[in-house]
Input
Amino acid sequence: MTHRIRKIIHIDMDAFYASVEQRDDPALRGKPVAVGGPNKRGVVAAASYEARAYGVRSAMPSVTAARKCPDLVFVKPRFDVYKQVSRQIRDIFAEFTPLIEPLSLDEAYLDVTDNLKDNPSATLIAREIRARILEETGLTASAGVSYNKFLAKIASDYRKPNGQFVITPGTGEAFVGELKVGKFHGVGPATADKMNRLGIFTGADLRALPLDVLQQHFGKSGSWYYAISRGEDHRPVKPDRQRKSIGSETTFFDDLGEPAEIEDGVIAMLDDVWSHCQKGGITGRTVTVKIKFADFQIITRSRTLAWPVTARGQLEQAAIALVRGVYPLPKRVRLLGVTLSNLERDEAPAPTPQLDLGLL
Output
């Protein structure tokens, strides 16, 4: 089966939330800025490039960020402003193509194979879009240009901030061959570690393994790794892409046994999940807690609520109630995860009733 060569652009705003704050408050320019709460259980939603120089990253606990960068300025998030700027940026995209697949408020895929400007060069289109974003919002964006989504997303990281990078059909396979597997979008730290233990460090190492061996070690994902190690990704840009769930999980260095440790672990996951919800303007109604015990047995507990979760406190209340339903713990815990599903875009304000744990 032959596939037409597509022209895909991945646009990624540079330190989006922090850049909006620095744009709107000149006193913050040139300073290390973290968007998020400075309190004990706060989490960094975004970090300016000045803050990143100290090792501050999004999803990092605020206390860790403040330790790494003592001069860090914390700014409360203004999601209404970020959404409004995101809409401005989407309007610019729509002048070039109707095939726009938003991933969050600050990044999107665009298919410009056939575009509204009749411009045959995706590179020039990306440059024009970035110039328009800068002119109309005062913010910079980076772009990756390639013949598929996987490579376009990787390419957008290559010239950050305020740059762009092109991976052509003739260079894609060689480019992936030299890439460390930890840089592959969709390969998290745990999978990268597993690959490293199997002697897979680069795309070329991955490509050297037969499909059946990859499937044996990685299940359904094996065929995906087989394809991307060859620079292949035939997923189309989907304008109505709807995320089905938002989740986070962690395998602990030492197995947990005390209820207080378990609950602290769940709360640590919540910060990550809630930060993704806020970033994408998403709410959800079903909360699921996943527990993997030391012997690798897995159990899950879920509740579907009457109203969407619109505050982090509601998510915490529901998740902790679920995990307490498992006490007393039959054995020590190796992994914890929290997922929010039954998602909907937060276009209109939803009611925020106090959750009654008896009705969960």
The domain at 245-359 is CATH 3.30.1490.100 (Dna Ligase; domain 1). The chain has three domains: 1-169, 172-228, 245-359.
